[in-house]
Amino acid sequence: QVQLVDSGGGMVQPGRSLRLSCAASGFAFSLYAMHWVRQAPGRGLEWVAVISFDGSKRYYADSVRGRFIISRDNSKNTLSLQMNSLRDEDTAVYYCARDLLGYCGDTSCYGGYFDYWGQGTLVTVSS
Amino acid sequence: EIVLTQSPGTLSLSPGERATLSCRASQSLSSNYLAWFQQRPGQAPRVLIFGASTRAPGIPDRFSGSGSGTDFTLTISRLEPEDFAVYYCQHYGSSYTFGQGTKLEIK
To answer: How confident is the model at residue A95 (pLDDT cuts 50, 70, 90)?
Structure first.
């Protein structure tokens, strides 16, 4: 069965870096675009980033562009999120999610809904 | 940028009642790229509906989605105890935007 396991969260000081991982199993990981979505404590959902099935295309929310890097290793069925220059407002539970039916073009990915989600990993940015 | 506005913010109903949740987009959504998610406390979101009206695999038929353009609705025909949760709509077009959520609570 499809499984996504998020890890790597923790407490970090503002300005520092953290790397999240999402281990995928139960499906052909290399055929699917993947996303990161976050949820600040007590708040709603915010899309963070998407990467195409082969890693050739990556798109980001304005709030993280230039600070976060999404990547994947299809040989290890792993999705990653490198978070740099962390701010207090990056405090959230971070979820990876699989994209079903989507397409990634030259300016964006679109058309794919999020059919499976990881359990989430909490990132706390605080001094 | 498309903004999704959900209403009401909180909906108080009893088990067995019918729930109607609204999601309004600031502009017409291309190809009805609209999904609904359920999130229970401490859990990841779960997709209920995609393409505005198609139930995701394994979702009970008491959940239904409708609408097009800028106005979309999630209907739960007869509430079960496990349906009390927070519900989000999402546009998955050229940008990925979530509504702010509707909390469905037991009356």
So the answer is: very high
Buried b / exposed e along A25-50 (16+ C-beta atoms within 10 A):
eeeebeebbbbbbbbeeeeebbbbbb
Does the distance separating the beta carbons of A118 and B50 come in below 8 Å? no
- By Cβ distance, the residue of B46, B50, B88 closest to A45 is B88
- The C-alpha angle A51, A68, A114, rounded to 5 degrees, equals 35
d(CA B15, CA A8): 39
Tell me the three state secondary structure of residue A29: helix
* Cα–Cα distance, A28 to A41 (Å, whole number): 32
Please check the confidence at residue B30 and state whether its pLDDT lies above 80: no
User: Does any CB of chain B come closer than 8 Å to the CB of residue A108?
Assistant: yes
d(CA A49, CA A34): 8
Q: Is the pLDDT of residue A101 over 80?
A: yes
CA distances to A13, B52, B69, B83 from B27, in Å: 39, 15, 8, 29
